[in-house]
Records
---
Amino acid sequence: MSAEMPLQGPVALPSRRRAVQGLLTTAATLLGGCSGNSSLLNSFTSPTPPPQSAQAPPGAAIGAGEVKAGLILPLSAAGNAGVAGQSMRNAAEMAVAEFNNPNVQLLLKDDGGTAEAARLAAQQALDEGAEIILGPLFAQSVSVVGQMARSRNIPVIAFSTDANVASAGVYLLSFLPESDVDRIVQYAGSTGKRSYAALIPDNPYGTVVEAAFKQAVARRNGQIVALERYPHDKAALAGPIRTVAQAAARADALFIPDGGDSVPDVAQGLMTAGLNMKKIQLLGTGLWDDSRISANPALDGGWYAAPDGAGYRGFAERYRARFKQEPTRTATLAYDAVALIAALVKTQGTQRFSTAVLTNPSGFTGIDGLFRFKADGTNERGLAVLKVTPSGSQILAPPPKSFGGSGI
């Protein structure tokens, strides 16, 4: 369980690589919870603060190494956020164990899902000697923790998928929608697709995806012949769908970056509006990693970008054996963060958490595959391209084995 694999760059993380994007289902959209899928923008809505104290006892720790790292999670938060926090805590413990007890001590702190508790947790961890902070999960908490850590020149590896809270020294180890979009447009362009239509949900995730889509198409000299936003209200779908269906005859591909709760309705609307779904290439994001997508005949043959699933399946199997329960989709983020710092402590000496090491352009390999941090705090991931089939997704193009140039 402690195997290390040579990686990109100077570091090796324990092997076992991940699966298809997704965090867990949560109540709203701004990062990442999404039904068993990939990148949403915020992560969870902030839960109601619990009545009890929102901080872990001062002595709570995982591991007994000399190098201290703060780990801030919503352990006592209500609902799905608390479930995610506990699952991520378990994954962190698992990473320490599978790395053969590295020279790391995780100072476990509970922020209860609130920004103020996250600030206090960060202050406590820093006062206890943390050289780096892992977490928190919510965007608003990342902002306050980042400010505090920056004042002491301490880096942060956080788990929000809201790129707005990334900055120099505050790195996001999460599934960012931008990576999905760039990968699927890059692949579509490599197969000769040049003109695109798009139906994009009218929510915060859709706003991020729309901007990334326009940039990705422009970078590859493509054109967008139609783009409409639609609300998550079936009664209001008809207008945007009709507009795109009429324009789609001039497009090579149709981009629908939404999940299994909405894409089948959009597909049905397009067929009702007269679009022959077999004559246009359907494109999606990691949110398409959903059994409801595979079960819909109209979506058969669609393409989407997501991590290769093998790593996550292995991780989930080991997690179940250890904890007798299923991990949440965010659990791999905590595992990879802990495995990364353990590897850096082992191999990088006093420069272990320096900007140059953390932003190594060659990147690292984790449960969810190849990733690297950019100077602005966002990340790039090496994603596969998958094809929707009735029996489940099939890999059309494997993830890259390395990063080339300034991007994938």
Note: The chain has eleven helices and 18 strands.
---
Amino acid sequence: MSHRIRSNKIKRRRGFTYLWILVLVVSVFLLIYFEQTSLLYILATLGVTVLLVVVATADLGQSEKSSEGPALSSDTLSLQSAAKPRK
């Protein structure tokens, strides 16, 4: 795939993202303006619930491993930093 086509897809996605943000901002503003806070509360609760379900079902353990080898644990990093001489 050429660089130009990839760049156009990214720009198109970015435009849709900005459109979604604008629609959500206007919707929240209108709900607050017309004092429909109960509906806003319900929508916010549903949004957080959907976000939690997406995070819970994300397959984070099966993500691609980096080709650099195993990642260092925090214990290994703290031992390495402690072993370095201080100036």
Note: The CA atoms of residues 11 and 17 lie 10 Å apart.
---
Amino acid sequence: MKRLALFLLVLCVPSVLPTAYPVYFKEQYFRLYHLHFIQYPDDTIENIYWLEQARKADFCNPLYALAKVENERQWERYRYLFTMHIELKMLEQHLYLGSKFDKRVAYFYNAPWKEQNLDSLKTAETAYRAALAYWPTAVEWAKKAETIRFTPLPDIQQWEDEAFRIVNGELDYADIIGDELARLAEVRAAFESMDQTTY
């Protein structure tokens, strides 16, 4: 009797285990993107991967969209806003990654590690420049979304706000990243002028 119960239990275990589901659509990949309380570079790289997959994938059926879509104009606006939002998230993730390697100040006591700090700044600059590459596309999609302005999508109000701020010039990542790159160049110059033998 015990053997029969154990046999039945073994047969039932696979049906209880959670199963994986295939991921095909932008919305599914976007749901895999997530922020951690403390975001390490590996977490950021993982998010960049999921967002990159979302960029390449097709949209799901409007029935499964991340916002309630009731007509074709809403569906068009939803797609524009979603694409803009993906571009912004890619940009932000590259900024997060760059900030992990950015030495915001060249302290005199870091002179013995001058070369390591310069390498770290080079990595940060690469990430910032990669972030900047997503900005023109985000602006383009925001402008397209704003051409269909009076088609509200309350479920994604934040995306609508982002598009409005981009089109009106209130949100300009080109300026933000430009300032970061200028500051980084000053920090690099300070490190390059350090004499390692003094300390």
Note: The longest helix spans residues 72-101.
---
Amino acid sequence: MRTDALLLQTRRHFPRFDINKVKITPIEKGGSDRKFYRVRCSSDQSLILVKYNLEREENRHYVEIAQFLERHDVHAPRIYFHDSDEGLIWLEDLGERDLFSHRDESWLVRRAFYESALDEVRKVHELPESVCIEMRQHLPAEFNSSLYLWEQSYFFENCLGRYFQVDSAKIDQLTALPAFSEIAERLSRLPRVLVHRDFQSQNILIRNGQAYLIDFQGMRPGLAQYDLASLLFDPYVDLSPAERDELLEHYCGGKPSSEYLETLRLCAMQRLMQALGAYGFLGLVKEHKHFLQHIPKAIASLREVVAGIEGLDLFKNLLAELN
């Protein structure tokens, strides 16, 4: 949709705005199929306008999830208007500073931001099942064994096959390892909570020292450790093992059990495989080449994670050979 058409739509839904003063500027944002714009109404007033693909079902659920989060006091952008026929959402502008943009500051500063983010996502994880039931119709498929296996296949196809050009016979050997399906089954048997699904530094805005969650349209029932793994093993940011431990203890209110840590490790494997598959797909199929630069860091983290998982020796050997 052209900018002048967006301007007319904004004027239609916000008639008080002076159309001659409104400026609409595109915002570059990740690999999403949605388009983002900053609508500046005056020097001190602005909105974010999102144009989404009507054919993608999860895009339609963003508004319902945002309103659900607001009802339960989870920090997220407030929805001002939703035009479901045109696929347009006008929402609160929380600024441009995400957690990622603070990556070069001292740990003392960053830790407070990370803890704020963990406090917000914990609110989501702790919502009682009776409350979450109302959201089921607005959420994508829950994390089950099929979804975990899909994440693994996404990695094999788009990272190993497409990016590293690993021989298909070798990939077939990996996919046949019993450990992968056993991990998927094991994780699928654990009790689920609501999870963000893409809880990483670029999806957490920081305003006035407080964290706000964005890009939560993929929210679904899953494991809290999946969200934790997304943040603690985020390929976009370097966190030391000691920093990860500090954040994990903050979230858990003390040292987590060995069983909890083992589930976190398995979730980290899944999350990193999913991220690496996305980098290969977005970088090579969608031609968003900047995603490819994150592959080496994510592969290094995946090596670290799978080192402690039994039954994956063939996989560990292959990862060690990747450059």
Note: The mean pLDDT is 93.
